[in-house]
Write a structure and sequence with these properties.
Radius of gyration: 17 Å
CATH topology: L-arginine/glycine Amidinotransferase, Chain A
Strand content: 15-25%
Order of helices and strands: EHEEEHEEEHEEEHEHEEHEHE
CATH superfamily: L-arginine/glycine Amidinotransferase, Chain A
Number of strands: 15
CATH class: Alpha Beta
Helix content: 25-40%
Structural class: alpha/beta
Low-confidence stretches: none
Mean pLDDT: 96
Strand order of the largest sheet: 2-1-15
Largest sheet: 3 strands, mixed
Distance between the termini: 28 Å
């Protein structure tokens, strides 16, 4: 079995103080479904404490009233190598989040750069070792990939998403370590599946049942993989591959179309 090693990580999270499903901009959102904000806060706090118990640094970002999706901190931008790209959202309902995340970045010593074309941060921009996997097809504009490559100075591999349920890259692919990923093949175009097979011949391919609970919307430190508790088949696959799965229930936040990774903005060194 491959030896896996955890590496301490730096995360930023925004509490779901104002979380609600006030509009529908992805197939998971049902405006008729009731949201228990107290339950959402408790689930989010469990996730935050899980990271802290694993030894990771977790910063909190002040939530803003009127921005119910701000809890999905990963969408706020990309932070890597001292460079910061702030999100430019596809839907006007989320526009205010860009300013909130840019302000947080600035206060932490970054100079956030705006892209001309739509990008939804780490929802579609995932660092794997020395490369950046970039999703497009539903939210992030393919043309933003070239802008982002220039800003952060990293090679970008573009991947086309084709299933609207998996509207961000982080709903269909987990970065497990600097050379290993897991993904749900039907979420990608034929050409993008071929790219993934070529880049990651040892990737874990996840089944429908686990993808259907957003199981791939997970966070890994190289050993410990924090994933939705309902993704039990994926957890078994991870265990067999030498990872340590840790299930967390984020079912209340799933009502907005997000889970573990969506709530976690990683600050990459």
């Amino acid at each position: 079995m491959t030896f896996r090693r955890a590496r301490r990580r730096h995360y930023a999270m925004t509490a779901p103080t104002f979380f609600a499903v006030e509009y529908a901009i992805n197939p998971w959102m049902d405006m008729s479904a009731s949201v228990d904000t107290h339950s959402a806060l408790n689930q989010w706090e469990t996730l935050r404490q899980t990271y802290k118990e694993l030894g990771h640094t977790v910063e909190t970002i002040e939530p803003v009233a009127g921005l119910p999706d701000m809890v999905y901190a990963a969408n706020g931008g990309l932070l890597v190598g001292g460079k910061a790209v702030v999100a430019k959202f596809a839907y006007p309902q989320r526009d205010g989040e860009s300013a909130a995340y840019a302000e947080w970045m600035t206060r932490h010593g970054y100079q956030p750069v705006e892209t001309r074309h739509t990008n939804e941060g780490q929802g579609d921009l995932l660092v794997v070792g020395s490369i950046l996997l970039a999703g497009h097809g539903f939210r992030t504009d393919r043309r933003a990939h070239d802008e982002i490559a220039s800003i952060v100075g990293m090679p970008v591999v573009s991947l086309e998403l084709v299933d609207p349920r998996f509207y961000h890259l982080d709903t269909a692919l987990t970065v497990l370590d600097d050379s290993t990923v897991a993904y749900y093949p039907p979420a990608f175009s034929d050409a993008s599946r071929a790219i993934l097979r070529d880049l990651f011949p040892d990737a874990i391919e996840v089944a429908d049942a686990d993808a259907d609970v957003l199981g791939l919307n997970a966070v890994s430190d190289g050993l410990n993989v924090v994933l939705p508790a309902a993704a039990t088949g994926y957890a078994d696959q991870l265990r067999r591959a030498g990872f340590r799965p840790i299930g967390v229930d984020l079912s209340e936040l799933l009502k907005g179309g997000g889970s573990i990774k969506c709530c976690t903005l990683e600050v990459h060194p």
